[in-house]
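Batch job 17 of 40 flagged for manual review because the log was empty.
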Amino acid sequence: MNDTSARVADSTGNWVDTRAPQWARPYLRLSRFDRPIGSWLLLMPCWWSAALAAGMAHDVGRLPLTIVLFLVGAFVMRGAGCTWNDITDRDLDDKVERTRSRPLPSGQVSAKQALAFMVAQALIGLVVLLQFNRFAILTGIASLLIVAIYPFMKRITWWPQTVLGLAFSWGALMGFAVTFGRIDVTALVLYAGAISWVIGYDTIYAHQDAEDDALIGIKSTARLFGTHTHQALILFYGLAVMLIGVALASGDARWPAWLGLMAFAMHLSWQIARLDIGDGELCKRLFYSNRDAGFLLFAGLLADAVMRAA
């Protein structure tokens, strides 16, 4: 099948299917612009760290520009990462019901075309990165190694979600690199908290594919935790809240940031209470809701930064 209008099974009725030029649709699907949730989840730790660092510096002058640059960078680099993931997984995706209609396994684009598109997205990301200081540029480039190895982890470890956490939480370091030209203990603790959050929400996501993954030998924390997923989420979401709280205390955050963390914690608790690992559609909705959880924390951190800069 090479019909570029063919839709991806788990993402239909979106703007790519209805409004994008037909020739562009496979590429937009490769970069997940038909379902940008991953870009938002990649962006949240970037915005958290940018706001917390600005608050610590008592200066929000550059924060609006930093927020915009992180927004652009997160969307294009997540697109590049997803394209790379699809290139490496194209044979596996053909064996999973939810992913076999993706552009590569369905023949909408070739591996060479996908590779060229990945490079183009990465170059846009480089242009964004070059707007920052030298330390931040090097810090951003360092993340590429984790991004490169992530697609292979589900073949060799039960903990690929941890490697995804290392990659998707990298933004927790970037705000400090951009603002201070260094990474301190506060940044590292925020990074650890974000990693725990990612492990939690991606475990929920992976339950959609648990049966297919078992048939083809793909490992995940969803399969590892199985019926103990609720207990695992209590652990990892609890760690996320605790570690982010330590980062806020280390950064002398004020009450708006703590309110944001409280709202974030309540949202994560709601996810655990609602979760039914046998309901794939519910797992998808709960996974998507983590964008809202991330926004709640960011709103508190942003208000805190503005208050401290006043």
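Reviewer: the log was empty due to a logging misconfiguration, but the result itself is present. DSSP finds 15 helices and no strands in the chain. Unflagging and moving on to job 18.
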